Amino acid sequence: MRIAVLGAGNVGGALAKGWAKAGHQITLGVRDRSNPDLQALINSHSGISATGVGMAAKSAEVIVVALPAKAVIDVFNSLGDLSDKIIIDATNSLFSKPGSYNHASDAIRKINNCSRIVKCFNTTGYENMENPVYQGEPIDMFMAGDDREAKDVCSKLSADLGFGKCHDFGGFDRIPLLEQLAMAWINLAVMQKKGRNIAFKLLER
Ligand SMILES: NC(=O)c1ccc[n+]([C@@H]2O[C@H](COP(=O)([O-])OP(=O)(O)OC[C@H]3O[C@@H](n4cnc5c(N)ncnc54)[C@H](OP(=O)(O)O)[C@@H]3O)[C@@H](O)[C@H]2O)c1
Would you place residue 199 in the very low, low, confident or very high pLDDT band (cuts 50, 70, 90)? Predict the structure, then answer.
């Protein structure tokens, strides 16, 4: 797939590398193309390139948001109507809300007239996105959103990174719950000092 990853930091970099390895065509949407870390990321895998945010979003089938939540308002105000795009929102607005919006997906839905938004890849650390396998067992991913087709695409992209099941938390109204799940991971990893090599997996019988 042609995937635009907006933001080339910890999360954007991890997702870009994983999907490039799986054969996807990744365009990073960035504001500074001279950044040496960005050049290293582009050179690390064939299938990764970088351009401005607008160009990256325009040519993509799927847009992945790996920006600070508060940057989403300015960035998405510059992108216009995105009603034909699938958008995967990997941000967390736990510590900094995007203005008066509840979370980044809420902002994008209203600013860009987009209903095909999936919240995903926000509930675990970027290290787990780079390597989602523990003792041979893939860890799980979690998503929420209203559009079935967008969730199917997201679930496939999660599997392409090496995650186990991508559990469906439900509709768009469940997005705050996914941000709280991210907070649970942060609490264990950082506040309770378990470190970032921890992950969630749902057991079923
Ligand atoms: N870190 C994690 O483990 C983790 C896990 C799950 C979810 N998240 C969420 O994922 C998002 C990204 O986190 P991160 O750790 O990857 O952050 P990061 O390493 O700081 O990367 C943020 C990226 O966003 C870019 N950016 C910031 N403002 C921008 C703007 N106005 N226009 C264009 N690009 C802009 C930065 O570009 P510059 O280099 O030009 O500043 C950078 O490439 C956050 O919402 C975070 O809460 C993080």
Answer: very high
Minimal-distance CA residue to ligand 1 atom 25: 7
Determine the distance separating the centroid of ligand 1 and the alpha carbon of 117, expressed in angstroms: 19
Residues 82-91 pLDDT 10s = 999 999 999 9
User: Of 69, 84, 73, whose CA–CA distance to 119 is shortest?
Assistant: 69
Name the residue ranges covered by the structural domains of the chain. Answer: 2-191
Exposed/middle/buried for residue 118 (C-beta within 10 Å: 0-12, 13-18, 19+) = buried
Residue type, position 179, single letter: E
The answer to whether residues 6 and 66 touch, using CB atoms and an 8 Å cutoff, is yes
* Ligand 1 lined by 183 (C-beta under 6 Å): no
Does the reported pTM lie above 0.85? yes
Segment 167-188 shows an average pLDDT of 98
Domain made up of 2-191: CATH architecture:
3-Layer(aba) Sandwich (3.40)
The residue assigned the tokens 């990744």 is 26
DSSP 8-state class, residue 54: H
